[in-house]
Design brief:
The protein is α+β, with helices and mostly antiparallel strands and about 375 residues long. It contains 9 helices and 6 strands. Its main location: membrane. It is a multi-pass membrane protein.
C-alpha cells in the first residue's frame, strides 16, 4: 500500500476531470428542470403586471438561477459521485486501482479534492452573486413584480412594532436618514391589541421623529369609514438604526456583512441565535459538497457482477439525502433556539463525516 494520500498525478487528473464533468452535467440538468418548473408556477404572476413580458421572465430566471445553483451544488456532487463510482466499478477500474495497491481512501482522494474545490467556488459564488440576486429578487417579489429595484441595498417585507402600533413595508431602500419605504401600512391598536384604524400609503419618509405618510388612506374599524389623509406622521419611536436592524436578511447578506449585522444586534442587546446559525451555515453549507464523495463511496466497491451494485448505489444515495434532511432539521431547530447556533450548523456535518468514515473503514479498509 502506498503511503501517499493521492495516487499518481495521471490518475488524480483522470479521476478529477471525470468527476467535475459529471458534476457540471448533473447540475445543469437539475437547474434547467427546476427552473422550468419554477417559471411555470411564477410566469402567471409576472405576466399579470401590465408591461411585463419576455424580458421580465428572463430577468426572473437570471435572478433565480443563482439560487438554484447554490442550493443544488451539493446534490449534484452526490449524484455525480454515485454515477462516477458506479461507472468505475462496472468497468473494473476500481478493482485495477486496488490491485495496484491503492487504498479506498486513495481511490477517493481525487474526488474529495475536486469536491473541496467545488465547495470553495460555491462559497465565493454565494458571497458575490447569490446574496445580491436574492436581495433583488425578494424586493421585486415584494413589489409584486413591478419595476425592478435599482438600489443595491433593498430590503423587502419588513415588519416593525412601535409600542401598540405596527408598521409594515413591502420594501425599504437607502440608509440612515435617507431611508425610504414603499407599500407602507400602519396599524394602530387599542386596548387588548385590537386594531382601531389602518393607514395605507405608497411611500413613507423619515421626518425625525416618525415617518410621514403622504396621501394615505385611513380606514376606521369602528365606523368602517374610509378617508384620505394628505400627510400623517406615525411610528415616532422608530429610528433608521432600529429599522436597519429589523430588516436584516441573512440570505441576502454575505458572510462578512452578516458578521457586522450580528455585532450590531449584540451591541443593541438583541437575540442573535437565528442569525448566528445562518452565519455558521454559510460555511458548513458549501462545505457539505466535500462530504458527498465520502457518503457515496459505498457505491465504488464490491464486485459489479455480485448483483449488489445497484443496492450499494441506493445506500450511498440514501446516506447523502439523509444528511440534507438532518441538516435542514438542525438548522430549523437552531433558528428556534432549540440548538446552539454552532451545533445546529456543524453537528450534521461532523456526524455524517464519522458515519461515512466508519462505513468506509469497516467495509473496505
Amino acid at each position: 500500500m502506498q503511503l501517499d494520500f493521492f495516487p499518481s498525478k495521471s490518475l488524480t487528473l483522470y479521476l478529477g476531470k471525470l468527476f467535475i464533468a459529471r458534476i457540471l452535467a448533473v447540475l445543469i440538468m437539475l437547474v434547467l428542470v427546476l427552473m422550468m418548473l419554477d417559471l411555470l408556477s411564477k410566469s402567471g404572476d409576472i405576466l399579470a403586471v401590465e408591461g411585463n413580458g419576455q424580458g421580465e421572465l428572463l430577468t426572473y430566471a437570471s435572478l433565480r438561477i443563482p439560487q438554484l445553483v447554490q442550493r443544488f451544488v451539493p446534490y449534484s456532487v452526490l449524484l455525480a459521485t454515485i454515477i462516477t463510482l458506479v461507472t468505475l466499478n462496472q468497468n473494473s477500474e476500481v478493482i485495477a486501482m486496488k490491485a495496484a495497491g491503492l487504498s479506498a481512501h486513495q481511490v477517493l482522494a481525487p474526488l474529495l479534492l475536486t469536491a473541496g474545490l467545488v465547495s470553495a467556488v460555491n462559497f465565493a459564488f454565494n458571497e458575490r452573486v447569490v446574496t445580491r440576486a436574492t436581495a433583488t429578487l425578494k424586493a421585486w417579489e415584494g413589489a409584486e413584480y413591478g419595476a425592478v429595484p435599482q438600489e443595491s441595498n433593498v430590503r423587502s417585507n419588513v415588519y416593525l412594532t412601535d409600542g401598540e402600533g405596527i408598521l409594515t413595508a413591502t420594501s425599504i431602500t437607502g440608509a440612515g436618514d435617507q431611508l425610504r419605504m414603499t407599500g407602507v401600512t400602519w396599524y394602530e391598536r387599542g386596548q387588548g391589541g385590537m386594531i382601531r384604524q389602518q393607514l395605507r400609503a405608497e411611500r413613507a419618509t423619515f421626518v425625525n421623529p416618525g415617518w410621514q405618510l403622504e396621501n394615505a388612506t385611513r380606514f376606521d374599524v369602528r365606523s368602517a369609514d374610509t378617508t384620505t389623509v394628505e400627510r400623517v406622521v406615525v411610528g415616532k419611536q422608530l429610528t433608521p438604526a432600529q429599522i436597519e436592524l429589523e430588516a436584516v436578511d441573512p440570505d441576502a447578506q454575505g458572510f462578512f456583512e452578516l458578521s457586522d449585522s450580528i455585532a450590531a444586534y449584540e451591541a443593541a442587546g438583541r437575540r442573535t441565535g437565528e442569525l448566528r446559525a445562518k452565519w455558521w451555515h454559510k460555511l458548513s453549507g458549501p462545505l457539505s459538497a466535500f462530504l458527498m464523495p465520502l457518503l457515496g463511496a459505498v457505491a465504488a466497491f464490491g464486485l459489479a457482477r455480485s448483483g449488489q451494485l445497484f443496492l450499494r448505489a441506493i445506500i450511498g444515495m440514501a446516506l447523502g439525502f439523509a444528511y440534507f434532511v438532518v441538516d435542514n432539521a438542525a438548522l430549523a431547530m437552531g433558528s428556534f433556539g432549540g440548538y446552539p447556533p454552532f451545533l445546529a450548523a456543524w453537528a450534521p456535518f461532523f456526524l455524517f463525516l464519522l458515519v461515512g468514515e466508519t462505513v468506509l473503514i469497516r467495509t473496505e479498509e
